[in-house]
Design a protein that fits this description.
306 residues, 9 helices
Length: 306
């Protein structure tokens, strides 16, 4: 959990979130401070507030890239799952289409950019370790992407083992993204996000076990190195279908969690902007205040000069 974590360059005593979540933060820190109005009580100075704002803006941008990557991956997984359950020719069409290359490119690079933006946002060691491990896996995915592009130029294939290495990393990436995003959402006030993250991690662990059984069943262990695939029997085909369904469900759930993080980041930044406007005595009146002022003025024809 990252309850009470502090952005880089930010004092421990300064509340890191919007007005409603500030109260929760102070309860966790044990200060008991609850300012009911924007101008009451101590407030973080402009430098601290801008540091907080920048942190959440970078988190929002990070989750935008992660959302783009995971939503496209979910769409691709749904297409392949429909092909497995229906017409297998759809798989050949998708993999031979330029759309497949564009989608895989966006998935790899958007995932890498999103993870890089999460690096260093929080000082807690657990957060740093998990983001660092996720970043390392994204770099391995990038190397595999270059290998795949190189093999495609030579009209070849990346190979059985590198292809499955990417799948093995995918299960761990599901768990890491769910863990990081769940903690971030709980920090923003979405208390049930932790339960969603735990269920995704549990499902990813189950899928990884099913995938490992399929990998052992589908690998020709007598063929030497590099490892090669072999024909699947009925048991192997069921395992293949099983882990593919779990993979698709995990992708959809992680995508929903990441989209929620992006939405909550927007909400917190909106709260901070609203608080800044309310606490600034030199700010221009809002449209609603202007409408209230007009409503109190006498209507035309009722004044003394008419």
């Amino acid at each position: 959990m990252i309850d009470g974590i502090v952005p880089r360059g930010h004092r421990v005593s300064a509340p890191p979130l919007g007005r409603r979540t500030m109260d929760r933060y102070h309860e966790q820190e044990g200060t008991g401070f609850r300012d009911k109005h924007p101008g009451d009580g101590p407030r973080m100075n402009d430098v601290d507030r801008e540091s907080v704002r920048k942190t959440y803006q970078l988190c929002r941008l990070s989750y935008f890239f992660l959302s783009a990557s995971l939503v496209l991956a979910s769409m691709a997984a749904i297409i392949l799952t429909a092909a497995i359950l229906g017409d297998r020719r759809l798989i050949l069409w998708y993999r031979s289409s330029p759309l497949s290359e564009w989608i895989s490119t966006i998935i790899v690079w958007a995932m890498l950019l999103g993870t890089m933006l999460l690096w260093g946002r929080w000082e807690q060691k657990s957060w740093q370790r998990r983001v660092g491990l996720l970043l390392l896996m994204c770099l391995v995915d990038l190397v595999l992407w270059f290998m795949e592009r190189s093999a495609a130029q030579g009209n070849g294939a990346i190979g059985w083992f590198p292809d499955n290495l990417g799948l093995a990393l995918g299960w761990a990436e599901f768990a890491l993204v769910a863990s990081l995003t769940g903690d971030y959402l709980v920090h923003l006030g979405a208390e049930r996000a932790d339960e969603s993250a735990r269920s995704i991690r549990s499902l990813a662990a189950t899928g990884a076990v099913v995938w490992m059984l399929h990998f052992c069943e589908a690998t020709n262990w007598d063929g030497g190195w590099p490892l090669q695939a072999r024909m699947l029997g009925p048991q192997g085909q069921l395992l293949f279908l099983g882990w593919h369904l779990i993979w698709t469900i995990c992708l959809i759930q992680v995508s929903a969690l990441v989209l929620a993080a992006f939405s909550h980041s927007n909400r917190v930044l909106g709260e901070m902007e609203k608080e800044d406007r309310e606490s600034d005595p030199l700010a221009h009146p809002s449209e609603s205040s202007h409408r209230d002022l007009l409503a109190t003025m006498p209507s035309r024809g009722t004044g003394p000069f008419m």
